[in-house]
From TrEMBL:
Residues 70-219 form the RecA family profile domain. The middle region has homology to RecA with ATPase motifs including the RadA KNRFG motif, while the C-terminus is homologous to Lon protease. Gene3D superfamilies: 3.30.230.10, P-loop containing nucleotide triphosphate hydrolases (3.40.50.300). DNA-dependent ATPase involved in processing of recombination intermediates, plays a role in repairing DNA breaks. Stimulates the branch migration of RecA-mediated strand transfer reactions, allowing the 3' invading strand to extend heteroduplex DNA faster. Binds ssDNA in the presence of ADP but not other nucleotides, has ATPase activity that is stimulated by ssDNA and various branched DNA structures, but inhibited by SSB. Does not have RecA's homology-searching function. PANTHER family: DNA REPAIR PROTEIN RADA (PTHR32472), DNA REPAIR PROTEIN RADA-LIKE PROTEIN (PTHR32472:SF10). It holds the Pfam family ChlI. ATP binds at G99, E100, P101, G102, I103, G104, K105, S106. Belongs to the RecA family. RadA subfamily. This is DNA repair protein RadA.
Amino acid sequence: MSGTTAKKSAPKAAYRCAECGWTTTKWVGRCGECQAWGTVEDASAVPVRTTAAGPVTTAALPILDVDAHLAQARPTGVPEFDRVLGGGLVPGAVVLVAGEPGIGKSTLLLDVCGREGREGRRVLYITGEESAAQVRLRGERIEALARTLYLAAETDLAAVLGHIDQVQPDLVVVDSVQTIGSANVDGAAGNVAQVREVAAALIAVAKARGIATLLVGHVTKDGSIAGPRVLEHLVDVVIQFEGERHSRLRLVRAVKNRYGPTDEVGCFDLSDAGITGLADPSGLFLSRGGADGHEQVPGTCVTVTLEGRRPLLAEVQALVAPSVLPSPRRATSGLDASRVSMLMAVLERRARVTLRNADIYVSTVGGVRVSEPATDLAVALAVAGAANDRALVPRTVAFGEVGLAGEIRPVAGVQRRVSEAARLGFTAAIVPPGSAGTFTPPAGFRVIEAGDLGTAVRLAMTRSV
């Protein structure tokens, strides 16, 4: 070999992720960039294509000449669902409804179908997981029967499109999109290619004919929507169902909404009779008596949390008991365990509340899950009251974020929180500093500012407040 060193050509990327475009020289089962499974494909097998200009289907119009009435929302008859959607269903809109199994997706959508049918609209309900008879029984149980509600148990995309041609519906529900498969795509129903093909076909029909479409989607173990991420980009609205399996409360929020806000939350009560909207759900999260001072016991504190733009009252309960274990127990329910542990350390260090030799249990009432930092102050006051065996001031709420230095930081929506507390019979609120001068509190309601956690503990246990 001559003295010149032959240059080695860099290996060409032979495989590409269909989701994010990440490339690799060998096939792998999981994308190294977006961590999606089964999306890495042979890049050499995909030919490079160019598209020439062709005839247009609809001429472009000046924006002022576009008829905006075609995109106006139509109420579904379920006010809490309409709140999340932004007023109702828009003709041609495609809504993806996702949530854990058994959380109430099918029940809610069947109720919506029944109400739409009773208004005289033609509704097509495609079920790929149950038989038509099973859906009929559920419809009888929740009183969602209508003459113009059509049921079809199908798992083939071509058959689904045939039903749409035959029924000519105003609303289509597909339960669920992962159970529908296309004969033109390799693989079983539910894989990435199948879900992409099925969703694209249904979206094309919905847009072309102005049919409002609701797609039910499965979720993975970590709570994210199953299937390709492009599915969430294709649809107009993405709605997430939330709730504990052992609780009747269900929260419905819009993760994406092209027709309305994404900070609205709908509250529902799931029971044997179906799922019903809760226009005023705050009472579910309070123990007996709520604002009644006669029910006040040590270790309880009421806070006001914001779910979207809706204020909800929630009660935090704490129990502090002497421990015989070298490492005392710390248990939480409905709260972030790591944040509660941080608040206990701040209480002991900054507010001189002794907790190191005690078992501590902190929970919310009614099974609600609270994750907003504004509930820090209520958690700390509940634990402090339980540790000192002293009840807090009756008819008082508390909210504010607690820092590691013991300071209480401002939170958003103070006026809405105070107004909701006053409406439910509370007479005072312990709030972060600088909050009282931003609005006028309701008559007879006192807004008490506390700059640090130690001051807030003293104020909450002072009966003259």
